[in-house]
């Protein structure tokens, strides 16, 4: 009899993590969500079967908890940022069916561009991290630490792990504020920078360089597919929402096999330039929000305040081979979801502001004290 996968999610209360928790819940996984409990998460109330454990992953209690509760069919880690962070998981070795490390295309900011490898279509492939570049790494601590963590996982031969390298992520409930700020700038008619990278000529990149993008919902679905491939080490009764034999993927071989720190790009097939992305968002604000958004004014002397890497678009073919049941959603529909979410959020804020103004303008009369 098939069993529900027992999955630990570390972090996962916001943005991509939220989308992942919801997707795995729909797929019938037996979920435990571990976080510090410091972020308000009203949406968790809609998932009564979800087990929530409050623990700081940087405390000794984290290692003790995951070891006591092992084995885990899968661990999905959204908040590992350095090699030290993954040591407690490495210590579990084969008691974890699959460890999914949420990495980033920022690893290429710590790599030597001379060693980049591209597909026939000019897209960056996963073997482009072949040579460490100290100067670039010093300018991008986040990317350097993510790469160092991947390298540590590669050394851990007893742990089956997957490094999901994500480009810039779009989607509802974002916690980076980048999309919120960009949409607000468009509505306000402010100039939008096109610089990607800091060297001379970087301002032109926003007009010509294809971007690597992904949407949070697509990351979540890729994680669902990866969890389905994880070896079942623990058994609870299978949820009726899991699709039997369809939930099982064929074993993988060669470069695509899930081994130690297998890197994989999770990305959209849509690869617009920065200017194309911004102009499409502006048009959606006009059509879906019925807003009078002025024509976008671009400025090559300013940074985009959004694009985080200068390596361009990613090759996502390995993900298609590794996860036959996964395909990134249609970009237009995903963009509409982003804009609709932001518009609704703005409407709610405006309504709340109006209520406060009315309360201040018409305060309730004070009740007279009676003897």
Automatic annotation (TrEMBL):
Pfam families assigned: Epimerase
CC terms in the record's Gene Ontology section: cytosol
SUPFAM superfamilies xref list: NAD(P)-binding Rossmann-fold domains
Occurrences of domain NAD-dependent epimerase/dehydratase (ranges): 7-80, 98-229
UniProt xrefs under Gene3D superfamilies: NAD(P)-binding Rossmann-like Domain (3.40.50.720)
Family annotation (InterPro entries): Epimerase_deHydtase, NAD(P)-bd_dom_sf
One of the protein's GO biological processes: monosaccharide metabolic process
An example Gene Ontology molecular-function term: UDP-glucose 4-epimerase activity
PANTHER family: NAD-DEPENDENT EPIMERASE_DEHYDRATASE DOMAIN-CONTAINING PROTEIN, UDP-GLUCOSE 4-EPIMERASE
Name of the molecule in the record: NAD-dependent epimerase/dehydratase domain-containing protein
Record organism: Prymnesium parvum
Lineage: Eukaryota, Haptista, Haptophyta, Prymnesiophyceae, Prymnesiales
